[in-house]
Specification:
With about 675 residues, the chain is an alpha/beta fold. The protein has 21 helices and 21 strands.
């Protein structure tokens, strides 16, 4: 007999996350196959969720925070031809008919004429009668309610389970999450300082080959489909670096396109920031304009960022018509059709008329100046007024003084102590900048050291109610650095006050410890072995039999650690001062084992360093790391006669929840299990 239950109760059993009433960002989502995100994407999801929800407190309604992580463009009037096109439609058209799923052919024709004027050409055309002299037709285009929706559909179309989409790091973190929600896997190609944070074609080729070879090895004994890299997401301009690849980088774009085409990898060319490239003579160049590359390229355009129309949610895709056919099928199956009015707005912005290009030049000459000024304003209050373009100095000084008064203005215009832009990374487009906070890493606020992205965000929120996207959110390629992506598109006064608050917060920091905590290295194993042997002999004297303690020696323990290094290298943190290891912690994420998600396996401190807070620092760093791996709780075992350890774990909030017998040598000893909630 079917057990009766309330419908809402049944739903909550199926989707327990709905029990939580959230503010800020909604639930980040999950994969369609029910599996966990891969670790790279899970780290991004955790960081975005922390920024958008967890760091915020219950006072958010009464005391709003300052969000420097916003994706909104600058407050600016929408592109006039788009508004004109929508108005004319509302005044003159009849709205009683449903729109076609693929969109009006008239609109698609206007979009086609635009991309052809921009240089799109298909040198390998089909033989259909409506194909024009550029090898294209309206069947190469459709539009929908944002490039994000189109991106989701494209990933679903071009990938099968196990296939990989390669993205850059830094990246727009939500696209990595959307990729896995749509059914593909994500891997990252790091953009590096030595390459000016641009795509290096040789590294791209090597990364694709490496991933494909790894997948071939994993799947070589299975019948049927072998997953592979199916697409490379080329954000041009890049979000969040603002780097542009335009006509001045034509050779580089040709190399990128060739690498992908030769390996059967689609290029997804995300061009939504294209028109707010600061240099009007070097705006981002679509790869589909390179002869021979059209059929291997999927190009995304939108109104949201460049045309000050984010709230309209509109975008269009240009691709081989085989792909467009399935995008249209997806639109029909998932939402029936896109509103005709957004098509009108798109056609108003993207058409080939001289009138449009004249309006474009007028509009963007003003808008680019606004973004350049705002970036220089940010630069002045981060790096100091002497670093900015001289054209903006007088205006910036006046603005900052009007907002803050003379004294605070003088302080702010000197720049933020210990913070700057990363080397070789000033934006060339858009409205984001990366700030480098690495110099404050390890410094303390009220006794708590800033070591991780989460620490950084917690510190600034606690001291100034300011938040931004941290490096983990954007796949920052340098693991040891602390960075944040901030917007400078907000109101001047809001931006100035936010940076002043960050400035003042940094002045509250206390000096860092003379040691750092990091993952262990192979060369650490001998010192770690000595610390363990000395630690046992020091802590367990008169607790464990003398014969067993006397049997411990440095050489055999070192060999054991070295032999198991490859297996456990990612599960050990060490505290080091220079080359000296002061202590270490070993941990193990154990998902779904009883009531415990994870275990702190061991924690050892060099006897001469006990009592200096190193054990607590290692313990907290381990907890933060396990929490970032989505573990909720942790168990720690220690001998029942080890009073020092018991006092240590109790002081940290541990509760004894279990006991067991542990065999050490020829004897058995009672152990306590301390339970910790990782939050």
């Amino acid at each position: 007999m079917l057990i009766k239950s309330h419908a809402i109760d049944r739903l909550l059993r199926q989707r327990p996350y709905l029990r939580e009433r959230r503010f800020g960002l909604p639930f980040i989502g999950s994969r369609i196959d029910g599996e966990r995100f891969n670790p790279t994407v899970q780290a991004i999801a955790n960081a975005i969720d922390f920024y958008g929800y967890e760091v915020r407190d219950e006072n958010i309604v009464e005391v709003p925070d300052t969000d420097l992580g916003s994706g909104n463009p600058v407050e600016f009037k929408p592109f006039p031809p788009s508004i004109k096109a929508m108005k004319q439609s509302l005044e003159n058209d009849l709205f009683y008919r449903y729109p076609y799923t693929e969109g009006s052919d008239v609109i698609r024709k206007q979009l086609l004429e635009y991309v052809e004027r921009e240089g799109f050409v298909n040198t390998e055309p089909y033989s259909f009668k409506d194909i024009d002299e550029n090898g294209l037709s309206v069947h190469n285009i459709t539009f929908s309610v944002s490039t994000s929706v189109l991106f989701n559909q494209i990933i679903n179309i071009i990938s099968q389970p196990g296939d990989v989409v390669l993205v850059t790091g830094p990246n727009y973190g939500l696209f990595t999450i959307r990729t896995e929600r749509a059914g593909a896997e994500v891997e990252v190609l790091n953009l590096e300082k030595e390459d000016n944070f641009l795509v290096n074609p040789k590294k791209l080729a090597d990364r694709i080959d490496q991933i494909n070879e790894s997948l071939q090895l994993v799947y070589n004994r299975r019948k049927g489909y072998v997953p592979r890299v199916v697409a490379f997401l080329n954000a041009n301009p890049n979000n969040p670096t603002g780097k542009v690849m335009g006509k001045n980088q034509y050779s580089l774009l040709c190399e990128i396109a060739t690498v992908c085409k030769e390996r059967g990898v689609f290029v997804i060319d995300d061009l939504v920031y294209r028109d707010i490239s600061y240099d009007k003579d070097n705006i981002a160049m679509p790869i589909a304009t390179i002869p021979g590359m059209f059929r291997n390229t999927i190009s995304l355009f939108g109104l949201s960022k460049s045309y000050s129309m984010a709230s309209l949610r509109s975008g269009f895709v240009v691709a081989d018509e085989i792909i467009i056919r399935e995008v249209i099928n997806k639109i029909f199956q998932e939402m029936d059709s896109a509103p005709d009015i957004i098509g009108k707005a798109l056609a108003g912005a993207f058409n080939a008329t001289d009138e449009r290009y004249k309006a474009y030049d007028t509009y963007f000459s003003k808008l680019r100046k606004v973004y350049l000024y705002k970036f220089n304003l940010l630069k002045a209050i981060v790096s100091g007024i002497d670093t900015v373009d001289r054209r903006f100095k007088a205006k910036i000084k006046k603005t900052v003084t009007d907002v803050l008064g003379k004294e605070d203005a003088k302080k702010v215009l000197a720049g933020i102590p210990m913070v700057d832009f990363p080397e070789n990374l000033e934006p060339e487009s858009g409205f984001f900048a990366i700030l480098d906070f690495t110099k404050i890493k390890g410094m303390k606020y009220k006794g708590h050291a800033i070591r991780t992205d989460e620490d950084l965000l917690k510190f600034f929120y606690a001291t100034s109610r300011t938040r931004f996207l941290v490096g983990q959110s954007i796949s920052w390629p340098y693991e040891g650095e602390l960075v944040g992506r901030v917007t400078f598109a907000i109101e001047d006064a809001k931006l100035i006050n936010a940076i002043l608050n960050i400035h003042n917060a940094i002045l509250l920091l206390e000096p860092k410890d003379d040691y750092i905590i990091r993952k262990n290295l192979y060369q650490d194993q001998e010192q770690m072995a000595r610390i363990k042997v000395d630690g046992w002999k020091n802590a367990y004297d008169s607790i464990i039999s003398a014969s067993y303690l006397n049997s411990l020696n440095y050489e055999s323990q070192t060999k054991r650690y070295q032999a198991s290094f490859d297996e456990y290298k990612d599960l050990v943190f060490v505290a080091v001062r220079g080359d000296e290891v002061l202590g270490y912690s070993c941990f193990n994420p154990i998902p779904n084992i009883g009531q415990f998600d994870s275990e702190l396996v061991s924690l050892y401190i060099k006897p001469s360093e006990i009592g200096k807070g190193i054990g607590t620092a290692l313990f907290l760093e381990t907890c933060k790391h396990l929490s970032a791996l989505d573990c909720k709780n942790m168990i720690v075992w220690c001998l029942s006669d080890n009073e020092n350890a018991i006092h240590f774990y109790e002081k940290l909030g541990g509760k004894i929840v279990k006991t067991k017998e542990a065999k050490i040598g020829d004897s058995e000893y009672k152990e306590y299990g301390f339970y910790f909630q990782l939050n």
